[in-house]
């Protein structure tokens, strides 16, 4: 008897988003893909760097997400930067629409991962950081690192 693997395995992550945005809330969404895109994502050939989500006609689409063409895909490969539909319930979409109606908020895909064999997207509601906010975050991170280093030296 074989056991199915459960849990999450992250396939792609948008690390730049945590630097550029304040993350208010996040939720899990399915994504509409074709077979060759799934195979390419499983190989780790997806990039979320400049991607964002947009609400059009009551549906959410992710744009600028780059999924490299599958090497053995031939004619079945699609455009790497095509717009892809996210799968959410109407109530979740209306909740996200309420957030994005406010000035300064946007929808950012944070990560792609597998859950029970299906590709999922962690979608976050984010507010853009200003340059001084980014500097403050870097200074706080450096200060925390120094404190941790001092504590480690002290207890040796």
Description:
Its main location: cytoplasm. One of its GO terms (cellular component) is cytosol. Pfam families: SmpB. With 156 residues, the protein is of the alpha+beta class. It has a single domain (9-129), classed as Small protein B (Small Protein B, Chain: A, Beta Barrel). The chain is built from 4 helices and 9 strands; from the N terminus they run E-H-E-H-E-E-E-E-E-H-E-E-H. A 7-stranded antiparallel sheet has the order 1-8-9-2-7-5-4. Strands 3-6 form a two-stranded antiparallel ribbon. Strand 4 and strand 5 form a beta hairpin. The longest helix is centred in the last third of the chain and has 24 residues, at 131-154. 21% of the residues are buried. The model has no long low-confidence stretch (mean pLDDT 83).
Question: What is the topology?
Answer:
Layout: E1 8-13, H1 15-20, E2 21-31, H2 35-42, E3 46-47, E4 52-56, E5 59-63, E6 66-67, E7 84-87, H3 90-101, E8 105-115, E9 118-128, H4 131-154
Antiparallel strand pairs: 1-8, 2-7, 2-9, 3-6, 4-5, 5-7, 8-9
GO biological process, one term: trans-translation-dependent protein tagging
Main location: cytoplasm
Family: Belongs to the SmpB family.
What is the CATH level 1 assignment? Mainly Beta
Number of domains: 1
Return the average pLDDT rounded to an integer: 83
The percent range for strand residues is 35-45%
Instruction: Profile the largest sheet.
Output: 7 strands, antiparallel
CATH superfamily caption: Small protein B
- Helical content band: 25-40%
Structural class: alpha+beta
| Biggest sheet, spatial arrangement of strands | 1-8-9-2-7-5-4
């Amino acid at each position: 008897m074989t056991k199915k693997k459960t849990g999450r395995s992250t396939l792609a992550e948008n690390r730049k988003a945590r630097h550029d945005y304040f993350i208010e809330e996040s939720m899990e969404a399915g994504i509409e893909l074709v077979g060759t895109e799934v195979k390419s994502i499983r190989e780790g050939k997806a990039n979320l760097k400049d991607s964002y989500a947009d609400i059009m006609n009551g549906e959410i689409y992710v744009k600028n997400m780059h999924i490299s063409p599958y090497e053995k895909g031939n004619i079945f490969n699609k455009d790497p930067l095509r717009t892809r539909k996210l799968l959410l319930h109407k109530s979740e979409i209306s909740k996200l629409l309420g957030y994005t109606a406010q000035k300064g908020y946007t929808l950012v895909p944070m990560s792609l991962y597998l859950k029970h064999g299906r590709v999922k997207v962690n979608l976050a509601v984010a507010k853009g950081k200003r340059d001084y906010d980014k500097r403050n975050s870097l200074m706080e991170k450096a200060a925390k690192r120094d404190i941790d280093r001092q504590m480690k030296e002290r207890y040796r």
